[in-house]
Amino acid sequence: MKNKRKICIIVNSRANYGRIKTVLLALQSHPEINLQLVVGASAVLQRFGDIREIIENDGLSITNIVYSVIEGENPTTMAKSTGLAIIELSTIFENLQPDVVLTVADRYETLATAVAASYMNIPLAHTQGGEVTGSIDESVRHAITKLAHIHFPSTKLAKNNLIRLGEDPATIYMTGCPAMDIAANTDLSIDADFFKRYKGVGPDIDPNKPYLVVLQHPVTTEFGKGFDQIKETIKAVSSINMQVVWLWPNIDAGSDDVSKGIRIFREREKPKYIHFYKNFSPEDFIKLIANCLCQIGNSSSAIREGAFLGVPAVNIGTRQNGRECGKNVIHVDYKNEEIQNAIKIQISHGKYERSDIFGRGNTGKLIAEILATSKLKIQKKLHF
Amino acid sequence: MKNKRKICIIVNSRANYGRIKTVLLALQSHPEINLQLVVGASAVLQRFGDIREIIENDGLSITNIVYSVIEGENPTTMAKSTGLAIIELSTIFENLQPDVVLTVADRYETLATAVAASYMNIPLAHTQGGEVTGSIDESVRHAITKLAHIHFPSTKLAKNNLIRLGEDPATIYMTGCPAMDIAANTDLSIDADFFKRYKGVGPDIDPNKPYLVVLQHPVTTEFGKGFDQIKETIKAVSSINMQVVWLWPNIDAGSDDVSKGIRIFREREKPKYIHFYKNFSPEDFIKLIANCLCQIGNSSSAIREGAFLGVPAVNIGTRQNGRECGKNVIHVDYKNEEIQNAIKIQISHGKYERSDIFGRGNTGKLIAEILATSKLKIQKKLHF
Amino acid sequence: MKNKRKICIIVNSRANYGRIKTVLLALQSHPEINLQLVVGASAVLQRFGDIREIIENDGLSITNIVYSVIEGENPTTMAKSTGLAIIELSTIFENLQPDVVLTVADRYETLATAVAASYMNIPLAHTQGGEVTGSIDESVRHAITKLAHIHFPSTKLAKNNLIRLGEDPATIYMTGCPAMDIAANTDLSIDADFFKRYKGVGPDIDPNKPYLVVLQHPVTTEFGKGFDQIKETIKAVSSINMQVVWLWPNIDAGSDDVSKGIRIFREREKPKYIHFYKNFSPEDFIKLIANCLCQIGNSSSAIREGAFLGVPAVNIGTRQNGRECGKNVIHVDYKNEEIQNAIKIQISHGKYERSDIFGRGNTGKLIAEILATSKLKIQKKLHF
Amino acid sequence: MKNKRKICIIVNSRANYGRIKTVLLALQSHPEINLQLVVGASAVLQRFGDIREIIENDGLSITNIVYSVIEGENPTTMAKSTGLAIIELSTIFENLQPDVVLTVADRYETLATAVAASYMNIPLAHTQGGEVTGSIDESVRHAITKLAHIHFPSTKLAKNNLIRLGEDPATIYMTGCPAMDIAANTDLSIDADFFKRYKGVGPDIDPNKPYLVVLQHPVTTEFGKGFDQIKETIKAVSSINMQVVWLWPNIDAGSDDVSKGIRIFREREKPKYIHFYKNFSPEDFIKLIANCLCQIGNSSSAIREGAFLGVPAVNIGTRQNGRECGKNVIHVDYKNEEIQNAIKIQISHGKYERSDIFGRGNTGKLIAEILATSKLKIQKKLHF
């Protein structure tokens, strides 16, 4: 009897999970595959919304958990956490002996997965390679590409970038982004209890009234400026007289500064129209943004899922610099007036048409099938 | 008064040191520079020839040492050692606060330096980027390139590769390889006591008689095959009736297998003409290979310094696959007969003409000057 | 010229600092001593009140900082953080080469200091050995005693316990606790701006009106019960109609549960009389408790400094089980009614007489002098 | 259905294994127990004799392996390896969720097991507590005792020491040492191929002729003196005209010095009568020493198993200082003449009578039964 191929996937954050969930489900139900699911980093931390329950409610079994975040939320601990994750993941790989490891996107700790797997001669698959942005993610993403053996870019442009970066075209599969699968297959309607299912802090959000969504992460390469940056967003959002669903930032260096800005604002102003949340399930996140009047901040979801759903979006600052996007996004600087104006324009514009540059909703199964059957080669070579 | 720019360089192995020594000396004597020298990994281990004494004898001060090698010499511990080095180096950078960090070449643990520095928003300089080889080094080198902010390629072809990889040409300085500085400036003559200054094991080498040099490292991406590979080299070298200076392999995964092959051979055959050494100073290494009849194995020194010195060389296997080289090299497979034949051809050919593809001997000062004065920018962007 | 003795002290938390500050000051001004001050763990984290500014305002220079907390605040990460601290501290000791290392008290991460120093053959000094409590601290404290070479117990009973534990009496110096030095030498009066100098959250505290102080940490050996335990304290304190200064718990496993309890209470009740603080300077902490009507919770400060200052205290639960204490403490279970009753009794009793069981206020200089001159021996031996 | 109790045991070295093997076998065949066997540290390293094959040949399944040795063999890396082992073991415990963890004896890295388990509120069992020796082991052993919840001392005196150290007598089980089980139940005869089954280096040992056994480890608290110390032993042993079975030292700090002494001696003298081995199976080790004329060095096996088997032994230096022993041992200093004389006295004396101070051969089953059924309590308290 043939052994099943063992595919190990590392989920490190709430964002990671939404971007890989349909791949996980497709692999778990694939007859030729043995799925190994490792959950670590901020995905197991209360402070960032421990997502283990969400994962298990989706019917997935967690093989291993790992605590790998060294506290500090600064560039030093970002590096150290990556080092610790390499140590931890290599022991886990040593004991699980996967045939392929997949790492998702470009957050700083995903490089840990890439180093552990590639150094251990385990073929490394990578999603979202070839895209262009700002922040340290830009460096991390391309570094992972140079360590990876199979690429699943989300867009044609990204695929072309991978080829220009010297990757062997035979190892590049333009599958689209698995997050679009959820956008394509979720009933977008919101029921009356939608917001009550998530705790968070602040006054209740009425799903029948219009609301904005804000999600602004720190920019690691602008560390130290996050506090001033978020103040501009706060001023702009405060000036719009509307309900706001505000998501706490991720764990990148500078997260503390952003959170501090939000916390001081909360404490002083006790805003009557803003509710702060840590987390939504991937489907509920899709519903959340699909029904908002405008998404504000610098999350890639405004650009990726936003394009597919046609969500009017205001993208602030450099974090998404250079990222391919649809027509739904207005780019502005960290300036109150620019942000305000853009929000108003987007509200009055309303929904945009669907764009499928990031995929059409069939990515999970595509990737699973390729992982199940593709030939695997370890030795890389610059392919010019 | 202007603060001096703090430049931190990490030396992780004997090979590292020879490849960066003239940069270190130039920086130490530069009036605008404060040199921070960190010595770690195999460079502080007896088993691989602790080089701290050699460094201090060269008049350099060591700022910090760090033990970062997790024992096992397999792919798992190679990954883990890299993780540990990231943890250690980020604490060191946190306390030393360097303005620039420089990482040398492409050994697996040099990626640790690159991750720590780039994640901490410290501009990262890199030597030997853009070259092409086999082994995990191929992946590591290009991944470091994608994290680095200043590049010091050794050859024109390497420079072009960096540009094709999307690096900003304004950040690429074609300086040549600092190892050529030593090759260019060392008196190549060997005195009678040359070999007596180094211990090692085995019968004495007579510097007045012809000798071969062997240096064969494991290939990490062919882990598990090192024992068989080295046996072919042993057979071939044994068949030539000549003195042999044999250097122990480096610490890469598979080192144990190579060493075991050598050790079993030593124990069984007690070869009367082979002396095993751990280490030479950079200058003595240059003398050593400049005066041998043929250098055998898969060390890049046969290709780099060898080209400059015109040393006849036999390069075995895949480790240097695709590396640019001069006319002094014959490439063969891991096969006794092929190796034997090539050695014989090279012995009868004798010295080759100097090739300066890897530099002309002025690299150290060039790099030091650029590090002292170049503008430093943190945020990278794919430059196509 | 004789070299100065290098004494390295590790400060890991706000509580650590108050308990060793006068030793640090005495060492820094001692002509025969070179003080090395390492600040790490929760002492460099915003979330727990980064105390570096307080330390520097006291005129002390920080030699090294180290991020060693692995986030999670559970028993697993408590162990992992200790492992990481050992790795970090041994590199620091390797580079600082101290002649003596001193570790403070019994928090979980102090064992890291003890392991690193004792394994590295560096004489280890320890304060607060020989005392008895609950929580993991009880195990940690005695384990450190078995690794330590010089002991500075705080009480006669503790000294006797150390002798019974098989420590050589010649290595035990009954010096009292350095925290009493601050209690003895601080002007206890509170000015009008006292509370305004610290941010925190909640309504202003009026220093002219009576107030309570609450400080309740998790009990690691009762992990999982912290949420229920803190609810009882909240109920009891809420029932007393009085201003409350509430300090956030430390970083021990279970801290999340305690904080969550407090946070939910804050969010729901928006209490008008409670202000939450992260941190006070050691002197201000002394003033704070010296002027309160009653200190509530399970902090050792209620027992140690509280005894000296005669502060009426209610000690809740098992954390201080078996700790020697003065007459100022009433012990109660995790029960609303018991806590309420005890608070009322203490308020009506008012201040207690000074007890000097934990020292008389001259400890810092005593310890510094002993560290400067004592003979140091590495090899330990059970002394029965 | 009742869940089986999960017992996790960590084996870190060849010596560890012999001291716990019969417990492992008894647990594996116990109907109420689920055995989790973790093999790490030097037990998975070629250089110290990877014992995984021996373990599996004994019919035991390995649950997890872990690489935790940071190379350097000095006090700094001894500390760092312990830190790394804590990090690794806590992740392993987090994923295996054992009900009890058992740590063996007193090597430096066994403290890692003790810290990880006790901090994680997992009841910790410990063998060999309460004994007295030199080296860092003396500190480590008693520190583990203070963290442990169940004690399995080997001797009555050790049991009494545990009580005097303040351990609760109800948690102390005087079971003897499991190593005696092997001594009691192994057929002590040696066949003609005995020595041929183990490789090692040096001339063949003839099992029909008399031989000596040498096993001398570094003393960590005398780090830096190992080279001089081993030279005395080499001189003494060389002066006796007899076959010698010499075992390489363990991985303690200073191992390099001892090995270097042996290696230089081997290289210079090419001794015709000494064979060097890394490792024997527990049973073969018993046969080996049971049939030698005299065991020389500072291994505890000469004292423990040696007492039971009546092996004449010469114990050199401070490593076993104060350890309880039978009549079979002569203690000498690190001095050629003293060692020589003692060897001669022992050879002429011949075998000693059996002493059962360290157990009678029934320990494995005893410990297994207690682990299967004993009540487990987490919170410790000094018991005076």
SSE topology:
The structure is a homotetramer of 384-residue chains.
Chain A: E1 5-11, H1 14-18, H2 21-28, E2 33-40, H3 52-57, E3 64-66, H4 75-96, E4 100-104, H5 110-119, E5 124-127, H6 135-147, E6 150-152, H7 156-164, H8 179-185, E7 211-215, H9 226-239, E8 243-247, H10 255-269, E9 274-277, H11 282-290, E10 294-297, H12 300-309, E11 313-316, E12 329-332, H13 336-349, H14 363-373
Parallel strand pairs in A: 1-2, 1-4, 2-3, 4-5, 5-6, 7-8, 7-10, 8-9, 10-11, 11-12
Helix pairs in contact in A: 2-14, 4-5, 5-6, 8-12, 9-10, 9-13
Could you provide a short overview of the structure?
The structure is a homotetramer of 384-residue chains. Chain A has 384 residues and is α/β, with parallel strands linked by helices.
What structural keywords apply?
14 helices; 12 strands; alpha/beta; Rossmann fold; six-stranded parallel sheet; homotetramer; 2 domains; 384 residues
